[in-house]
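Please check both lines for our workbook:

___
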Amino acid sequence: MYKIMIKDHGEIDAPEGSTLFNVANNIVADRQPYVLAIVDQRVQDLSAQIEMDGSVEFITIAHPEGFRAYQRSVVFLMIVAAKSLLGPKTRVVIEHSINKNLFCEIRDVDITEKLLRTIERKMREMARRDTPISKNVLSVSEAMKIAEQFGYEDKAALLKYRRVSNVNFYKLDGYYDYFYGPMLPTTGLINNFKLIKRQRHGFVLQMPSPQNAYELAEITPNTKISEVFAESNEWARILNVDTVGALNDLICRGEAGDIIRINEALHEKKIAYLADRIHDEKKTIVLIAGPSSSGKTTFAQRLCIQLRVNGLRPSVISLDDYFLDREYSPRDVEGKLDYETIEAIDIKKFNDDLSALLAGEAVEVPRFDFIVGRRAPQGRIIKLLTGDVLIVEGIHGLNERLTEHIPRDKKFKIFISALTQLNVDDHNRIPTTDTRLLRRIVRDNRARGVNAAQSINRWSSVLRGENTFIFPFQEEADGFFNSALVYEMCVLKQYAEPLLFRVEKDEPEYMEARRLIKFLDTFLGIDSEVVQSNSILREFIGGSCF
């Protein structure tokens, strides 16, 4: 017998040979079933055997790691159902996320309602059978053979760069697959999903939503943002890289410089296009908004240059400089400082300054010092002349409340985010939130005196604020800019890894830090010296010409 202390449930005796799943089945979860366990600050599949006395925390999909495991397991269930109906080498690709749901494609197959209903019925049948999802620890050479057997060229390319001798492949109903993280122990825990047709080869895999009491996430018409994802896929085609393995191959062939130059040129071409629209439509105010660490500051400066090329005189102000002093800043439901709410902005002063600027007056625009958490004693003087363009960048730029006294036809709204066009492989996507979190960790340590643990600790509040104050307004934008760079993780890793390794095991953020370290390990490194000085990436790693 082993003595196991279970968080929130007390101590129990577990017979030798018991799995975490056996123990979890004897405990009543509050609302959702348990899907994973945390043992010694490590996330573990419930299939793991108990081998010693210790402490365990069982988690549901309400926990971020539990939700990720549920997503991965539903994806695996869908892939196996599709392959069992269409053939074992059918290529299913998880393209991107939309409101917690996943946009998927089955390559070279016309998607029909009949086909989706057949796949969905197969998924529900497998879920009712309570089929085990087993973890198999394989050598890299064994994993490569399985990847070849099932036509996983993307996974074979990724496995070439594994630095460890073993890799976890999961098995369901005779099908093997690699997933980037732990899975549910059985399909019986998968009870909430739906397939919805979207395009000729595409469909949405609808998931439970943490924001919707874990009922299916809302499907909203995101026409404009879907167009941005389509543009991102086209960029991936131009760059000839859509997975990490393909990117690593290009780096090994000495082609990193070409990838960087082409990616940066695509950025510049898009910025020039937006500047042309602003000029042609005779806009007075440009409002740039987007979630944290999207690169709004650098984008605004690069847009200024293109506007000057068009004969306009732009001036830039940042909403960040209108933050209330830290002691007056509101706090979120967890009691943390909430910089994401619009209430953290001194809206009255911003509107007073905006009105004065548009009236032709000289205004001293404030400067916020993030190190000390208050407004600096002196700002900078700005005055607009006739025909000038005012650029305002900040997370609330699309919210009409910010500029409600300015006629809508005078404003041009731009939504910017880092919608990565790169996946780990066909079945493991890179969340845009991970890209932005790593950017923020690096930037805030360099420019704001914040360590990695503090950045991770604040991230849940940041995401909550974005879902409330930013994403609901994205479809109101007149133009979109995707700031993701296909190569950026290869550069960010050398800055982020030392910061993440400093997070100690007894800190609550340790588990998330280790997850990010493991993620970065899949990328080969690129020297930051080759990154041009006006790149969006320079806003985070330093050395920007702006």
Notes: The first helix runs from residue 20 to 24. The mean pLDDT is 90.
